[in-house]
TrEMBL record:
InterPro entries: Catalase, Catalase_AS, Catalase_clade1/3, Catalase_core, Catalase_haem_BS, Catalase_immune_responsive, Catalase_sf. The keyword rRNA-binding does not apply. It comes from Paraburkholderia acidicola. Its EC number is 1.11.1.6. This is Catalase. Keywords: Heme, Hydrogen peroxide, Iron, Metal-binding, Oxidoreductase, Peroxidase, Signal. Residues 31-46 have a biased composition (Polar residues). Residues 30-410 form the Catalase core domain. Residues 31-51 are annotated as: Disordered.
């Protein structure tokens, strides 16, 4: 029998391994120490009428294990569905990046987790919520995680606001129930969310299937080529299946029919061999092109609407994981997990995300979460990290430091982070080119008449929960500022005075 580097018997002499593994207990129920169980139905008792005895270690261990079966759910994106597949690169972009995952013809295994954002782990999969689209690429140069959503933008542009954004949108601290009144209290003070809210309340904001939505990296990232040259890129997964959402009037029936619609749809398709695909496209800007817009190109509330997209590969999902907990629940995606040739941009949201994910994962799963099968890179990990709770890594030898004249680990300067020019002093200032409303209006005007109507129906239904008149008029003024027709129709649907909305909108800067 071959023992892999990870096999639990790898520390034992080969002769012993053969002796153990040739004795098969396969058909027997065993305890965690591998010994057979005689009776899993009746606890050991002191006589026919006496109490249960403490020496029944099968009973005790079984209950102890059960008591600890849950790990904390993700603080956001708790409800999710995972699937395995592969990414095949098809276009030479070596002029942009040295990342081997993009070598034409390279096949890279992936694990994708789709999710909702605000609901609990067991919450319905249909919710007015962005959908997570997180992809872990197990590349030859280590794992790269592209942790995106189904929209090209986000609600806020600075990580310091993220906990507040989540608190306002998660269930109320008093009732435990989501409350549109609290959400819009936050959004009334967050004009940069106008474009994302407009996207969220469309029919596409309620995808009828994970297969029928796109994915976006949202932020700009840096691609770095072998010469050390930098380009800024945005990533877009384009659904080959097409985009399809649920209209407001169909939502109650569809939720009533199946709370788990999204998981069931994806897994049924995979089991039937109907493998969903997404093309990966990129938009590219040179560093000196970032300043050419009247918005900040590194503001994640903006799309690069005038920059062309080009296809660089295709993702295919083809396998349902056979253990939900060990894959979907224990998977840990992080925007900070990158490979040579891909680096973060200076986007302030992305910069906060670079810290937050690995931090929460150390808490949620444990210090050595990267050693779990779903998170472990296919590339060999060689470093001096050691110990910690549940460590089962392969680090060997007593030179657990660096530098060393005994067993030095090489470091290749070609993998140093790229150098970026800096300017100014430290500061705490909002970005200058906010342009909070224009892209929301452009998006509204791009919708069909039916989609505009559905957007107004869905958004006004939630705006009608806003109890503060000030918040209500502030929200309406944002939408009016984005587009007069949009704001007027929302004012009508929320019984508001449109002239007051217009007057308030007139005071807003672009
Ligand atoms: C500063 C802003 C943000 C912070 C601090 C933040 C933080 C977090 C945290 C703590 C998690 C849970 C991770 C885990 O337990 O494994 C998470 C999950 C996630 N976030 Fe964010 N997030 C931010 C913004 C965003 C944005 C802008 C996107 C989309 C581009 C996004 C997409 C996701 C996705 C898809 C997941 C679920 C990953 C999975 O399936 O496991 N987040 N986020």
């Amino acid at each position: 029998m071959a023992t892999s580097a990870r096999h639990p018997l790898r520390y034992l002499p080969a002769a012993l391994i053969v002796a153990f593994t040739s004795t098969s207990f396969a058909a027997n129920l065993t305890r965690d120490n591998g010994s057979p169980v005689g009776d899993n139905q009746n606890s050991q008792t002191a006589g026919p009428a006496g109490p249960v005895v403490l020496q029944d270690s099968q009973l005790i261990e079984k209950l102890q294990r059960f008591d600890r079966e849950r790990i904390p759910e993700r603080v956001v994106h708790a409800r999710g569905t995972g699937a395995f597949g592969e990414f095949v690169a098809d276009t030479d972009i070596s002029d942009l990046t040295k990342a081997q995952v993009f070598t034409p013809g390279a096949h890279t295994p992936v694990f994708v987790r789709f999710s909702t954002v605000m609901g609990y782990r067991g919450s319905p999969e249909q919710a007015r919520d962005p959908r997570g689209f997180a992809t872990k690429f197990y590349t030859q140069q280590g794992n790269w995680d592209l942790v995106g959503i189904n929209w090209p933008i986000f609600f806020i542009r600075d990580a310091i606001k993220f906990p507040d954004f989540v608190h306002a949108n998660k269930p109320s601290a008093v009732t435990g129930v989501q409350d549109a009144n609290l959400a819009f209290d936050f959004f009334a003070h967050t004009p940069e969310a106008t474009s994302m809210l407009t996207h969220l309340y469309t029919v596409q904001g309620m995808p009828d299937s994970y297969r029928h939505m796109d994915g976006f990296g949202v932020h700009a990232f840096k691609l770095v080529n072998a010469k050390g040259e930098v380009h800024y890129v945005k990533f877009h997964w384009k659904s080959v299946q097409g985009i399809h959402g649920i209209r407001p009037q169909d939502i109650p029936t569809s939720i009533g029919k199946d709370w788990n619609l999204m998981s069931n749809d994806l897994y049924t398709a995979l089991k039937n061999g109907d493998y969903p695909k997404w093309d990966l496209t990129i938009q590219v800007l040179k560093p000196d092109e970032l300043a050419q817009f009247d918005y900040d190109a590194l503001d994640d509330t903006k799309i690069w609407s005038t920059v062309p997209e080009r296809k660089i590969g295709t993702l295919t999902l083809n396998r349902v994981p056979d253990n939900y907990f060990q894959t979907t629940e224990e998977s840990a995606f992080a925007p900070s997990r990158m490979v040579p040739g891909i680096e973060p941009s200076e986007d302030r949201m992305l910069q906060g995300r670079l810290f937050s994910y690995a931090d929460t994962q150390i808490y949620r799963i444990g210090t050595n979460y990267n050693e779990l099968p779903i998170n472990r890179p296919l590339a060999t990990v060689t470093n001096n990290n050691q110990d910690g709770l549940m460590n089962f890594g392969d680090r060997k030898g007593d030179v657990n430091y660096e530098p060393s004249g005994i067993a030095e680990l090489a470091q290749d300067p070609q993998y140093k982070y790229v150098q970026t020019p800096l300017a100014g002093t430290t500061q705490q200032q909002a970005i200058h080119k906010t342009l909070n409303f224009r892209q929301a209006g452009e998006y509204y005007r791009s919708l069909s008449a039916q989609d505009k109507g559905d957007l107004v129906t869905a958004l006004s239904a939630d705006l009608n929960h806003v109890t503060s008149e000030t918040n209500k008029y502030t929200m309406l003024s944002y939408f009016y500022k984005a587009d007069v027709d949009y704001g007027t129709r929302l004012a009508g649907a929320t019984h508001a005075d449109v002239s007051r909305v217009a007057a308030q909108a007139a005071k807003l800067s672009d």
